[in-house]
């Protein structure tokens, strides 16, 4: 279960430009995180830091990926899920509209969205735990 995960620390997809500011998680914040997580710019292209750049996706487990529609991360999530599907990995993508990154921790604003997401997670775990 992946909730608004980061798959590419190069931070260069179209959604980084489209949602670069004003949608909770900003491009500037992501650059800051990447620069403090890694030793140098070259490491951003290492698949261990940017799993979207893996050579093979075929031996990965089933995945549920939840991301918001107005998130700098949405494009890389869509691309990652497609690579999993292309490799034959059972994968589900849930793009939450009308919420911002980190909505899971904002119940005063997104209670119904959180409940929906929790139900998706619970269903996915039930399906894959037998």
UniProtKB/TrEMBL annotation:
Q: InterPro entries in the record, alphabetically?
A: AB_hydrolase_3 (IPR013094), AB_hydrolase_fold (IPR029058), GDXG_lipolytic_enzyme (IPR050300)
Determine the domain of life of the protein's source: Eukaryota
Task: Fetch the Pfam families from UniProt.
Answer: Abhydrolase_3
Gene Ontology MF terms? hydrolase activity
Ranges for the Alpha/beta hydrolase fold-3 domain? 1-104
Q: Could you list this entry's UniProt keywords, alphabetically sorted.
A: Hydrolase
Asked if Mitochondrion is a keyword of the record, the answer is no
**What PANTHER family does the annotation carry?**
AB HYDROLASE SUPERFAMILY PROTEIN C4A8.06C, ALPHA_BETA HYDROLASE FOLD-3 DOMAIN-CONTAINING PROTEIN-RELATED
User: What is the protein name given in its UniProt record?
Assistant: AB hydrolase superfamily protein C1039.03-like
């Amino acid at each position: 279960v992946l909730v608004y995960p980061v798959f590419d620390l190069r931070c260069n997809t179209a959604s980084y430009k489209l949602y670069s500011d004003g949608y909770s998680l900003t491009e500037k914040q992501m650059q800051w995180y990447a620069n403090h997580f890694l030793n140098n710019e070259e490491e951003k292209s290492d698949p261990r830091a940017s799993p979207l750049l893996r050579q093979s996706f075929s031996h990965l487990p089933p995945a549920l990926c939840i991301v918001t529609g107005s998130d700098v991360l949405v494009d890389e999530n869509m691309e990652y899920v497609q690579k999993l599907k292309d490799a034959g990995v059972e994968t589900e993508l849930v793009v939450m509209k009308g919420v911002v990154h980190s909505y899971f921790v904002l119940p005063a604003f997104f209670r119904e969205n959180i409940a929906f997401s929790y139900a998706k997670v619970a269903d996915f775990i039930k399906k894959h735990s037998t």
